[in-house]
Amino acid sequence: MQAKVKARGTQPLVVTANRLRDGRVVWLGGGGIWSERVGDAAIFDGAGVAAGLSAAAQAEAEQIVVAPYEVEVTLKPGGPEPLRMRERVRVVGPSVLAPSVLAAGMLAEAAE
Amino acid sequence: MDGLDRTAPQVTAGIYKYDAYDRQFLRDRVAEFRGQVDRRLAGALSEDEFKPLRLMNGLYLQLHAYMLRCAVPYGVLSSDQMRQFAVVARRFDRGYGHFTTRQNIQFNWIKLEEAADAIATLADADLHAIQTSGNCIRNVTTDEYAGAAFDESVDPRVYAEILRQWSTLHPEFSFLPRKFKIAITGAARDRAAIQLHDIGLAARRDASGAVSFEVWVGGGMGRTPILAYRIRERLPEAETIAYLEAILRVYNALGGRENIHKARIKILVRDVGQARFTELVEQEYARLPRERYRLEPEVVAAIQAHFAPPPFAVLPQADAALAAACDGDAEFAAWVGRNTHPHKVAGYISAVISLKPIGGIPGDCSAAQMDAIADLADRYAFGEVRVSHVQNLVLAHVRKDELYALWQALRPLGLATGNVGLLSDIIACPGLDYCALANARAIPVAQLIAERFADLHRQHDIGSVYINISGCINACAHHHVGHIGILGVDRKGEEYYQITLGGSATNDARIGDIVGPSFAYDQVTDAVETILRSYLAIRQAGELFIDTYRRTGLAPFKEALYATA
Amino acid sequence: MQLLEQGRPAADRWLRVADAAPIPDDVAALIGLERLAEVPAGRTAPLGVVVGPATLPEELAPLLNRVALIAVAFPKFRDGRGFTLGRALRERFRYGGELRAVGHVLPDQHLFLLRCGFSAVEVADGADLAPWTAALGRFHTAYQAMVTDKATLRQCMRRFG
Ligand code: SF4
User: Fold this and answer.
1) Looking at the domain assignment, is residue A43 inside a domain?
2) Domain C2-160, CATH 3.10.100 — does that match?
3) Would the pLDDT of A3 be above 50?
4) DSSP letters along C40-62, please?
5) Which end of chain C is more exposed for a tag (fewer CB within 10 A), N or C?
6) CB-closest option in B47, B113, B361 to A98
């Protein structure tokens, strides 16, 4: 059912971090843009990811993001899907929502 | 109590009231934090430098956003403070908060650029997030029935408040090797888990009325769960601060600083040995300038005055109205059986508001619920609310003849689940749904288990059992001491769960035993059901789960769990 | 290096002697603790020692009448051992000379250092001193009884500064 983590080096990669000013999950897209949507993420291969990480380090030095790192993904029609559960949760948000959130109709925002 | 004039605050319970100095101190602290955030956003502080500073103000960077952990000192809140949490939840978060096992509250969706405003909003109600994280002395925790429990000899809130003040921005102990947790109890039954803290204090009163402390040191959970040992049997009240200073100095000087997993005081105690550790502390204590650190009786008396009993009415112990209500309403009677605790004053009782509705998120509370609880506290409980270490709320002083009305008011709010101490009263940390350190989710596991056993009759048949679910080895949900402990582990990026049995956090504290190989996410509920079916099959008359486990040990449970595998 | 003494910028009258360099006998010299044996008994010029964070106060007790400066090294600001060392030197051994924090410390720790008995702190050249002085003006009260604190205001609350 779930894709198993494969050996390093063969899997496509994306670069992620949390945005400094609000902590939200962001993905490094083309042109050094940080997007909240994983679908906007630039895809790297094992050799190319160094460039992404160095762009990310630059963004960290400029107080844009915190603690960037690369994430292994599989490419799905809907966009890249991380292999690890932790990163999948970062993509979709908490898998449980407080009743008040549901009641307030904020579901879409909470799962963005 | 007339209770009809809603214009005036109704807080008459004993709560530590801030004076001008405390308030100025909090304002100064907010200003300091605001400056730190500004320096971080401007790049004058690196993340490495900023992190310990924000942590000492309770601000974490979690998976989806910053999380703010606000202190509820020793679990006691006024109704106005509860309302202020609702304000913070609405203004800076998404309309809810999460009560934790350390008697604090966490907000999950904070923005760094608004964090100082959130903390300033807390300060308006004498609330703060000081030292709710970081390698410093954390929020001192205690018994949620303090000042109310029938089996209490010393009110631990008095000493918890003294220790709160002493530890607040302590210049020597703000950069310890690792976090430092102190718990204190003053009752016969330990409801503060003192053997599982860096320092545990058990207050006793002798025949002359003098207070002394049993001092325990070196306990903790996490990766290396260890029970504390008793370093002093009878520490006089006046020496409390001096003795704690001595322990902290030895720890600060000699505690491990190389490896984060070997930095807690429990590891130092284990490595040098209890005898040597005791010797080091006693040496340090002997040469402290005792005068400077003496806890004067006047100071204790001044703090004690804050915790004076509320204006209790003179009532008979047995209450006819309560008995009649129980007779007429079986559901209420069942709730009373589970969700109350005996009070030391005749005609009063402590009521537990369960934050564990079946299928809900353990410990979560919406802003609307917070406001409603604050109103009920004003109406029925002298304007005071407690946070318990199992993530429920407590109204400590309720008239027995008003208990039925309180329960009826709680029902439409979804706050009248009568499951305290039962299987669905599950303790769960935020886990992988929120927490950056997590291996696996904890909340949905709790929900699945609670839903599987949703039938309260079945839960009553099973009887009291504590299930604790932590998303990682940090053990925020105290899984080591759960009757059934569940720990999230990571296996190649997927969620697995290790199960332990037989833990206990009270007087007979014990670390649970690991049953065997871990279970996948969709196997955990079945595993718990198998464990409980085994217990039902082999229990003897009158045995609770923990009793059966102690009698039989791991074997029958292990066999049932892995027989067919 | 810039030097803040009791929070105020000050000139450093001490010469920090490099590990391999000879120890001059005519100026105030700050040397590593391990070189103490090299110092002649008849030395009259002031002597200071740099001590590591693992140093215990009792190790320093025998030299307290020989040294006028103890510089406590903070390898990382998170390493708080120096606070306990400083406080013990002042409180237990009544050390009255200069006590200086060197290495990695943050402005946010400035007040803690002074309250633990430090008299000076070394700040990197070019670093903005404003946060360092601001940190001292931030609080006026505290809940603990430290060596430097003045009147008790009420209960546990004390004024300092
Ligand atoms: S136990 Fe682990 S996953 Fe759970 S809250 Fe604590 S650190 Fe996070």
Assistant:
1) yes
2) no
3) no
4) -TT--S-EEEEE-TT--HHHHGG
5) N
6) B361
Q: Rounded mean pLDDT of chain B?
A: 95
User: Which pLDDT score, from 0 to 100, does residue B290 have?
Assistant: 87
Give the closest of B28, B135, B257 to C139, CB-based: B28
Write the pLDDT tens digit of every residue in B410-430. 999 999 999 999 999 999 999
Q: Model's pTM, two decimal places?
A: 0.93
Return the number of other C-beta atoms located less than 10 Å from residue A8's C-beta. Answer: 9
User: Token match 């002798």: residue?
Assistant: B206
Q: Is A83 on the interface with B (CB under 8 A)?
A: yes
Q: How many CB atoms lie within 10 A of CB C105?
A: 23
pLDDT band at B77 (very low <50, low <70, confident <90, very high): very high
Q: What is the pLDDT of residue A8?
A: 53
Is A94 within a domain? yes
Residue of B nearest to A95 (CA): B433
Residue in this structure with the two tokens 């940390």, named with its chain if needed: B429
Q: Indicate which of A58, A96, A107 best probes the interface with B, i.e. most B CBs within 10 Å of its own CB.
A: A96
C-alpha distance from C45 to closest chain B C-alpha (Å): 32
- At B9, the pLDDT band (50, 70, 90 cuts) reads low
Chains C and A touch (3+ CB pairs under 8 A): no
Domain membership of residue A7 (yes or no) is: no
Mutate to test the interface with B, among A86, A87, A106, A109 (most CBs of B within 10 A): A86
Residue from the list B41, B63, B432 with its beta carbon closest to the beta carbon of A21: B41
pLDDT of A111 higher than 80: no
Q: pLDDT at residue B5 above 50?
A: no
Q: Which two tokens stand for residue A100?
A: 């008040």
The DSSP string of B1-40 is ------SS----S--PPP-HHHHHHHHHHHHHHHHHHHHH
Q: Rounded to 5 degrees, what angle do the CA atoms B47, B27, B134 make? A: 35
Domain count, chain A: 1
- In angstroms, rounded to a whole number, what is the distance separating the alpha carbons of residues A80 and C27? 67
Confidence of residue B4 (pLDDT cuts 50, 70, 90): very low
* Spans of all domains in chain C: 2-160
What pLDDT, on a 0 to 100 scale, did the predictor assign at position C41? 87
Does residue B172 sit at the C interface (CB-CB below 8 Å)? yes
Q: What are chain B's domains?
A: 20-123 (3.90.480.20), 141-306 (3.30.413.10), 318-413 (3.90.480.20), 427-564 (3.30.413.10)
Tell me whether residue A36 is in a domain.
yes
Q: What percent of chain B has pLDDT over 90?
A: 94
List strands edge to edge, sheet with B105-110. Answer: B59-61, B66-70, B105-110, B96-99, B364-366
ipTM value of the model? 0.96
Q: Provide residues with CB under 6 Å of ligand 1.
A: B 429-431, 435, 437-438, 470-472, 474-476
Contact state of B66 with A99 under an 8 Å Cβ cutoff: no
B41/A63 Cβ within 8 A: yes
Which residue range(s) make up the domain with A81? 13-111
Per-residue tokens: A16: 């992620």
Q: Please say whether the beta carbons of B108 and B98 come within 8 A.
A: yes
Q: Identify the chains in contact with B, defined as 3+ C-beta pairs within 8 A.
A: A, C
From the CA of B440, give the closest atom in ligand 1.
3
Count other C-beta atoms under 10 Å from residue A84's C-beta: 17
Report the distance separating Cα B544 and Cα B533, nearest Å.
Answer: 13
Check if B447 contacts A (Cβ < 8 Å): yes
